[in-house]
Amino acid sequence: MKSSILFIACLLLTASLTWAQSGSEEDVLARLKDGGDRGQVEIVTDSLLEGNYYKLLVKNSKVKGVPGYRIRIFSESGIGAREQLQSIRAEFLSSFPEIDVHEDYDELYFKLYVGDCRTRSEALKLYDQIKNKFPNPILVEDFIDIQ
Fold first, then answer.
1. Which sign does the torsion angle of CA 116, 125, 71, 103 carry?
2. pTM for this structure?
3. Which has the closest alpha carbon to 58: 89, 27, 96?
4. Cα separation of 133 and 13, whole Å?
5. Which of 19, 69, 107, 141 could make an S-S bridge to 28, C-beta 3.0–4.6 Å?
6. What does the domain layout of the chain look like in residue ranges?
7. Burial 87-108 (b: 16+ CB within 10 A, else e)
């Protein structure tokens, strides 16, 4: 039983990766169950497995970007925090014009994040570059823009 569920999960994963690369907008599971133009295939799945598959599709459709890292160089609240953020943003862009800057407002805090790093090692290299000019940077896991 476990091996058949594992086999079906692997089949769904392989099919979803193939579907993601093809750029098709139709549902992979429905396409697999249908059989398409290539012949007859009957796939029997557990309803819980199918339900989790569709939940994952919905969750992933709401997420913008891919998992990665950014560095927070500013986080303040209070009077003048927005102006401080703008000034630090301008200072950062004048020092590092090739690095992306992202502003965020989260529960009274104005935050400034820099970089779109896919790996932790890439983020640590960026961290080393900016730590002398911008004290106390913080490495943060975030969803980053794909470049």
1. negative
2. 0.61
3. 27
4. 45
5. 19
6. 2-62, 66-144
7. ebbeebeeebeebebbeeeeee
